[in-house]
Automatic annotation (TrEMBL):
Keywords: Hydrolase. Coiled coil: none annotated. Residues 6-131 form the Nudix hydrolase domain. GO terms for molecular function: hydrolase activity. This is NUDIX hydrolase.
Amino acid sequence: MAEYRNPKPTVDCIIELAGERIVLIRRKNPPVGWALPGGFVDEGESLETAAVREAKEETGLTVKLVEQFHTYSDPKRDPRQHTISTVYIGTAEGEPSGSDDAAEAKTFPSSALPKDLCFDHGTILSDYLAYKRTGQRRKL
């Protein structure tokens, strides 16, 4: 019987807090570094539900999704396996605290994001900041 090796669906969430701050998590597990809150979609779960669940598990924040931003599918975006991530923009109130597979959760001004970002999250955040400045989405 043939084994099918399909990409795994994931979600990431750009959580905006007051003062143009963005929530990032520091990952406990490899690859280590800062990342957007997110993770794998469970069977029977919508992408939107997964994004809200993962954000809550990793940051303790209740996120209201504002819009679907973009889907990232470069086969090399995750060094562990081929994943496809649908990225959402959401808002929340309060201060994050890391839990689940996040060693910590912290806010960063959009003008001072850390450099040691995991996966393709540097690209995602660069696209997001350009979108916020210009209203233009990433070109395909």
